[in-house]
Known about the structure:
The structure holds two protein chains of two kinds.
Chain A: H1 2-23, H2 43-178, H3 183-196
Helix pairs in contact in A: 2-3
Chain B: E1 3-4, E2 7-8, H1 22-27, H2 31-49, H3 60-80, H4 88-104, H5 117-139, H6 157-169, H7 171-203, H8 205-211, H9 213-250
Antiparallel strand pairs in B: 1-2
Helix pairs in contact in B: 2-4, 3-4, 3-9, 4-9, 5-7, 5-9, 7-8, 7-9
Amino acid sequence: MKKTIRIATLLSLVALPAMAQVASEHPGATSSAGMPQLDFGNPWTIAQVVWMLIIFGALYYVMARYALPQVEGVLAARRARIEGDLETAQAAKQRADAAMAEHQAATARARAEAQAAINAATQKAQAEAATRAEALNAKLAAQIAAAETQIATARDNAMGALRQVATDTADALVTRLIGQGDSAGVAAAVDRELAARGQA
Amino acid sequence: MAAEGKAIDALSQFELVPFMGALGESVRFSQSNAHMLLAFGLIAALMIWGTAKRAIIPGRLQALAESGYEFVHGIVEGQVGTEGKRYFPFVFSIFMFVLFGNMLGLLPYAFTFTSHIAVTFALAALVFVVVTVVALAIHGTHFFSYFFPEGAPKALAPLIIPIEIISYLSRPISLSVRLFANMVAGHVMLKVFGTFVVMIGSAAGVLGLIGAVLPMAMNVALVGFEILVAFLQAYVFAILTSIYLHDAVHLH
C-alpha cells in the first residue's frame, strides 16, 4: 500500500509542475515556472537555509545544554527512587521475616514452658495425693490396730468371766446333785474343757 | 489561491513569503523560518517546561517529553551503542526538528519547511559533515579504509572503491530527497483533493455538493496518512543518522 502511494505521489510530482505551469499566470513575487523549492536563484531560498542553520544551532544548544540534561536528571531520579523503594521494601520484608521467626520461637518457648509447668503441677499434685493417702492409711491402720487390741481385751475379759461363771454354775449343779461340792475338781474340769475347745 | 480559472494550483503553497511584511523583508526572514522558530519554541517548551516539575509520577506533558527522550535514546543506543551518548543531543535535535516541521505543516494555513529541498539538503549535509568529522576524529586517516571492505579481493579495488565513495557521497542526497519528496507529495495531494472539493462543490449545484464528498473523504484519510508519514520520515531521518554515526564510530 505504501509503495503504491509512493508511486502515485511520484507520478503526481511529475504531472503537477505541468499543471502548475498553466496555473502560474499569476506568478508570485518569487515564483518562476515549476516548483518554488527548485528555484535556487531566489535569494529567499538561500536566506531560509541560513536562518535554519541559526535556529537549528540554537535548538541543538538548548537541547544539549539545558533540556536533555534536565530530562536525564528526572529519569535518573526516578530510577534511583524506584531502586531505593525496592531496597526499603526488601529491608522491611527481612524485618518482617525476622519478627515472624522471633514470634514463632517465642510461641514455641511459651508452649514448652506451659507444658513444663503443667507437668510440674501434675507431679506435685500426685506426690501430695500420695503422701496424703499414705498418712490416711497409717492413721486408719493405727485405728484398726487399736480397735483390734480393744476387741481382744474385751474378749479376754469376757472369756475370763465365762470361766468363772462356768465353774460356779458347774459347782452349784454338782453340789445340788450330790450334796457336796468339789470346787477344785470342777475348776480343773472346766479348764480342761475350755482348753479342749481352744478357748483358754 | 485555491483554484484560479480551471487549473489546479498545487505549488504556490510552497512559495516563500516574507514574515511580518517589511520587518521580515529587511532580514529575509520568511514564513518558513517563522515555522522553524515556532518548532524550536515548541520543542524547547515541551522538553524544558514539560519536565520542569521533575515529578516522579509524570503528568501528560512530562510523559510526552520523557517518551520522546527515551524513543530517540533507544534509537541512538541501539544503533551506535554506548559510545553514541555523545551524539544523542544531535540526533535528538534532528529528530524533533524534522518531526515538528512535518507535524506543524499539517495544520491549516501552516507552512511545511521540510517540503523545501534546500532545507532538507542542508540538514542532510549537516549530518554528512558531522558524521565525516566524527569518523576522521576517531580513526584519522584509517577512516579511508572504510571505502575498501577488509577481505575483498585486491583485484576488485578499482571497482569497489569508486562504488563505496559514490554510495558514501550519495547519502545526503538520498536522505534529503526522501524527506523532501514525501512531504511535497503529501501536501500536493492534499491541495489537489482540497481543490477538487471546491471545484466540484461549486460547479453543479446539489449534485456537485454530493460529489464533493468523495475528495473530502479522501482528504480526511490523507491527513491521517500524512500524520503517519510525518512521524515515519522523522524516524527514518533519525535512524539513518544513527546508522551513519555507527559507521563513523565503528567503521563497518
